[in-house]
Structure formats: C-alpha cells, structure tokens
Amino acid sequence: MADGRDGKKTSVDPKLLELLACPLTKGPLAWNPERGELVSRVAKLAYPVRDGIPIMLPSEARTISAEDVLSPPKPGGPG
Asked: Which one-letter DSSP state was computed for residue 58?
C-alpha cells in the first residue's frame, strides 16, 4: 500500500486520471495503488504521486521493467 507523507493512503481521483497523459508519449497512464504511481507502459516510466499530487516530470519518474509493463496493476486493493 502506498502512503503519503502524512501516513494516509494515497489515491488519484479517477476523473483526474482520465485527463492526465504521459508528458513524453502523450499516452494514457494507469494507476498503481500498491506503489502510489502513475504508470506509462509505452514510456516504461512510473511517475510518483506525493501528497496526492502527480509529479509529471520525467526526471522524477522511475524506469519500470518489462515485467511491470506486461503485468497490469491489480484492480482494487486494500482499503
């Protein structure tokens, strides 16, 4: 489970998720609730969400493995 700095569960508003796009590919992003990241499968990057704010900077993104790209995040999750 991903936690914000205040210890509360981090999430992204579904309407916001529909509007956001990867800044490199302009493609869709998928929410990974386990890691608290927005994932661009095309760019193979995971953008962090801190205090409920997506950090959409490629320099802040984590490169994800091919395995992460192929396996979609599990829906739902704890909480």
From this structure: G
Residue 10 — very low, low, confident or very high, per pLDDT cuts 50/70/90? low
Residue 40 is part of a domain; what is its CATH number? 2.20.25.10
Give the range of the structural domain holding residue 26, as residue numbers without chain letter: 14-70
Q: What is d(CA 13, CA 45) in angstroms, rounded to the nearest whole number?
A: 20
Cβ-proximal residues to 57 (8 Å cutoff; 6+ apart), any chain: 23, 47
User: Is there a domain that residue 79 lies in?
Assistant: no
> Which tokens belong to 50?
């801190």
Tens digits of per-residue pLDDT, 17-76?
A: 889 999 999 999 999 999 999 999 999 999 999 988 899 999 999 999 877 766 655 554
Number of compact structural domains in the chain: 1
